[in-house]
Amino acid sequence: MTLVAGVVAVQGNVAEHAAAIRRAGADRERELEVREVRDPGIVPDCDLLAMPGGESTTISRLLHEEGIAPEIREHVRAGKPLLATCAGLIVAASDARDDRVETLGLVDVTVERNAFGRQRDSFEAPLEIDGLDDPFPAVFIRAPVIDSVGEAAVLASVDGRPVAVRDGPVVATSFHPELTADSRLHELAFFGAERAESEHALLE
User: Fold this and answer.
1) Which of 39, 50, 101, 111 lies 20 to 30 Å (CA to CA) from residue 10?
2) Is domain 3-203 in CATH 3.40.50.1970, yes or no?
3) Tell me: the pLDDT tens digits for 70-123?
4) One of 176, 187, 199, 204 is an active-site residue; which one?
5) Inter-CA distances, 75 with 18, 32, 38, 41, 52, Å
């Protein structure tokens, strides 16, 4: 069965996410068709969905203007995986502390935009992530910080501040996993449940 993976393409690192999704699918020996989402009507056909970084106010505005926002909400309500990164995290959050961002309310967290600093303050750090065996090379660029966490589970933190969370079928990160050759974060977001079921079966 071929899975359809959508990448929200109104702004951000679309090609990088598409490439990472393809690598993750290959690692899991799954056939994938990647589609770019710029118009309504595509998300309902998607099994997996990624919402890249970029400018959160612009992404939020375009998602609502184009009628894509309710489709993303329905995607998550149906239990389908969503990976939201950097600005994608801000848009997916329950509260962005910024009236210019109409959030989707998919992740029970409050975030602060650009809390890790400006472009010149970008950095890369090996990050211990719950669900991954070895540190992940996380790239932080004008990254938001998660100020408070409600029902979401924290997967990783930097200096005591959450930078990766899971809330139901949604995995959201402050950093850019698509900017490395390491596709394990995409695999965790999209095939993590599959992996857990497989490991459980081996133990029985």
Assistant:
1) 111
2) no
3) 999 999 999 999 999 999 999 999 999 999 999 999 999 999 876 555 555 577
4) 176
5) 18, 18, 16, 12, 16
